[in-house]
Specification:
CATH topology: 2,3-Dihydroxybiphenyl 1,2-Dioxygenase, domain 1
Largest sheet: 7 strands, mixed
Order of helices and strands: EHEEEHEHEE
Helix content: 10-25%
Bound molecules: cobalt (II) ion
Shape: globular
Distance between the termini: 12 Å
Structural class: alpha/beta
Number of domains: 1
Number of strands: 7
CATH superfamily: 2,3-Dihydroxybiphenyl 1,2-Dioxygenase, domain 1
Strand content: 35-45%
């Protein structure tokens, strides 16, 4: 059902600065850069084997990422699992007592369908599911 950890989302204040730092760490440029207007974020993906690190900066004060950084500072924001079938994964999550967060737009980076599970129902971890 869950195929692998697709990526770890990390909230940052300054995406350019973070990309510079991670480029030095990974010794390569970001594999993917994208602004997702509907989610009010800019993202940079760095592949690390089967998984990626997703750096996220909010693009508006009311962006969930901006609010997260305001409240908690920079750091790990979510863990994302790749799934074959998002609807089936959501059904399994609900069976496990985990609740999806209602969203107006279900397209994430790369145009893939995504959903988030509320951390209050998962043991304190914001979980993203991406259908790939
Ligand atoms: Co993500």
């Amino acid at each position: 059902m869950l195929k692998k950890i697709d990526h770890i989302g990390i909230a940052v204040r300054d995406l350019d600065a973070a990309v510079q730092k991670y480029s030095a760490l990974f010794r390569k440029p970001a594999d993917h850069l994208e602004e997702i207007a509907a989610q009010k974020v800019s993202v940079a993906m760095f592949r690390a084997g089967e998984s990626s690190v997703e750096l996220l900066q909010g693009t508006a004060d009311d962006s969930p990422i901006s609010r997260f950084v305001e409240k908690n500072g920079e750091g790990i924001h979510h863990i994302c699992y790749a799934v074959a079938d998002l609807n089936a994964a959501l059904a399994a999550a609900e069976e496990a007592g985990m609740s999806p967060i209602p969203q107006e737009n279900d397209r994430g980076a790369g145009g893939y369908r995504i959903a988030f599970l509320h951390p209050k129902t998962t043991g304190g971890v914001l979980i993203e599911l991406v259908e790939k």
